[in-house]
Specification:
Blueprint: E1 2-7, E2 10-13, E3 18-26, E4 33-39, E5 46-51, E6 58-60, E7 68-73, E8 78-83, E9 92-99, E10 105-107, E11 111-116
Parallel strand pairs: 2-11
Antiparallel strand pairs: 1-3, 3-8, 4-5, 4-9, 5-6, 7-8, 9-10, 9-11
Amino acid sequence: QVQLVESGGGLVQAGGSLRLSCAASGRTFSTYAIDWYRQAPGKERAIVASIGWRGGSTYYADSVKGRFTISRDNPKNTAYLQMNNLKPEDTAVYYCHARDSTSVDYWGQGTQVTVSS
């Protein structure tokens, strides 16, 4: 069992930055790939970024490429999403998602990010 707790969300003006954290407890964090998803009001949850269990492979949605950076610190059991040059359309609840090679997965409770224009 893995417990995921997101933090770092908040209200920021357009052009600003936030860093989200995903703290994991439970089974070995380093064996899980980590994804960040977001869900805006009235929209489906969509993937934003992913990072492999070693941190060597990453994926970004086109809408955030060049602005967001995903990273992880396995000894600290924490993953991060650095978000720069935020836009109002980035407003959403952001979720951390952990998945292993057997498709077992876990979700955090989400953290709200609001970007004002």
